[in-house]
Amino acid sequence: MDRFPNAADVDFHSPLDLTKAAAAVLDAEGRISGWGASAQRLLGHPPEDVLGRPAARLLAADPGQRLSALCTALRPRSTVLDLSCRDGHTLRAAVTFSPLAPQGVAATVVVAAELEALRGWEAQLAMLQGLATESSVGLTIFDTDMRVVWGNVSTDLELAGIAQYVGRPAADLFPEGEFISRHHPPDEDQIMEHVLTTGEPIMGMHYRGRAPADPVREHVWSCSYHRLVDARGEPLGLFEESLDITDRYRAQERLSLLVRAGKRIGASLDVRRTAAELADVAVPQLADEVLVDLPPAVIEGRQPPTGSAPGHNLLRMHGRTPEEFRTTPVSYPPSSPQALSLATSRPVVDAATHSSADEPAPADRRSSLFVPLVARDAVLGLATFRRSSNPDPFGPEEQTLAVELTERAAVGIDNARRYTSQHAAALVLQRSLLPQHLPEQSAVDVAYRYLPADSRVGVGGDWFDLIPLSGARVGLTVGDVVGHGVHAAATMGRLRATVRTLALLDLDPAELLTRLDGLVAQDSESRADDGLGDEALGVTCLYAIYDPVSGRCVWASAGHPPPIVADASGSVALSALAPGPPLGLGSLPYENVELSLSSGSVVAFFTDGVVEDRRTDIDSGIDRLAHVLTWQRCPLEELCDRALSTLPPGPQADDATLLLVRTRRLGAGQVVDLELPPDPAMVARARTDTERQLETWGLSELAFTAELVVSELVTNSIRYATGPVLLRLIRDRSLLCEVSDNAHTAPHLRRARRDDEGGRGLFLVAQMSQRWGTRYTGSGKTIWAELAIP
Fold first, then answer.
1. With b meaning 16 or more CB within 10 Å and e meaning fewer, what string describes 609-643?
2. Which of 378-382, 416-420, 683-687 has the lowest mean pLDDT?
3. Could you tell me the pTM of the whole model?
4. Beta strand 461-468 with 564-566: parallel, antiparallel or unpaired?
5. Beta strand pairing status for 178-179 and 202-211?
């Protein structure tokens, strides 16, 4: 479809042209002797009504001597007359009188046209003249061979004279220019050929180059191409419109650059990455190269140094990815523009680049701009914008743009520096709250891995622990506080300490989680007004107790993934019991799960960071970990490495904590049980059997102390219990003496007075043992004491 369907109605012929104007001939007396068809169309009078009659009759007003003077003039004269039309209305017309005989007055040719049409034509003519002589739009006409034919004054000025290019191809006008619009062929010859062949105009192409009249400064033009055809529709060539939009284009580029900078600079909370982001945004639109120099303190997350000489002890950032990141030391002399920029906190332009003291000055660098990185009134470093291929110096607007980009980068670097400092402090806090090493136990072999989340996410709240319990048993716990940062780490440390304290009370797992749930809920309520409550009560925990004597393992979970068990044969089992609610909700009770584990079984305790990822669901992660545990005969350290090696590559979104334990069973020769009736006479038997067993174990040196402890514990149980008393001796890393009965009353250590007949038994037990205590079971209680083996 034709873009301009009314273009054929545009006519640049003058209304007074003989092919269009009304024409008549007057004789010497002013009578009409000739009347053309065009005159009839204009005024409506047929020839028979006007021929031979005075022309004055066609005038709407009395002409006086004016018409006679026009007819007798010796040269053409033009005037405006009001003419009477046949339908009675008056037409104001432009009329030209031209004598046919220069000697004498034989006849006069009269040409007339409507005055309004003539004025419109004159306006069009003036417009064309303005385009040719005064318009800022460059107009250039090319023939069908795409050679220059004509250019208006604007084109003449840009080319420093159009005459030297007439007859030359279009490519000679701007030999080093290029189209930067990509929605059409980038070659000018192809564009012009397309317009000539199809007649389809191409408009709004952006062209970048250097005009012959201004070869130093790079310009951008908006160019359009249109085909020229003659009256028969045959191509005559084409013309080009070009408008210099350099200032507008650069303003748009600056705006788009700032928009990109706002999206990209400073989002990573990483000092080195932020420096790379500044370079990525500014190159090549503003500079050919951007260098960022920072003090080591800023990179490490500390406060920038003050009082030192500007330009000394800086590190230059290199690389765009973490694998490429590296630094090189740079230093600038006090007289250099870099040092001046750092000292004054202002940008400095230098046409001939001064390099650092450690870097030779490159000969091809034409212009450099040094901008200090300033945030919160502190100078964090220096950004250097360099140009080599572009000889244009940095103008005021480009300096302003560079300062704005650098300010954004400085804020991002300062935020990254502060985050690095806070993250390091949180990491130190977290690691100080986690166990530095797990105590060796006869019950289990242990290996663990803690993989912190990516630094951009922040320190998490994972914890794990191994807690020695009475009777050679061991408590195992793993937990997770939802969220990241110092608060999550502090909450983790608080909960880990609480779990350890409750575990030493010898509570079973369900009872321990019930008490911990109440404490978390109470703590959250008391701290909610300050906004410091546990992260949306998102605390999960799993606690297990393993007994190496019976091989019994009991565990309970508060919203935490249950452990995965691989027995000695390598078969893997998952718990069928769903975890209870997370801590702090207080809605449902917790249940114990009991397992019987053979010696050599491997149990995996883990947080969701080990099995869950943004790209995979938790079930797939559990299956992946379970598959690793089928290699349970491998050393635990190797199993840990295998498990973490299966994590998806890339940054960790959450902490990953893995605790692997391989169970052991105490042999029959290490445990002795003796059931005694509730008879005081049985105390002597207990002492005798203890002495005999210690001799068998080669621990005769402990006989006196052990007999005294056993005597006091058995005596106390027989006195208060109503059923049989069970004495158990366990030879482990220490000698364990346990006395169990069916009473639920707790013995209390007290200081006996001089005249008291009793009350000294537990005092003696406490003095002679490393540790002692009481634990409760479903059938009663057990009093135990540990004696160090010499």
1. bbbbbeeeeeeebbebbbebbeebeeebeebbeeb
2. 416-420
3. 0.58
4. unpaired
5. antiparallel
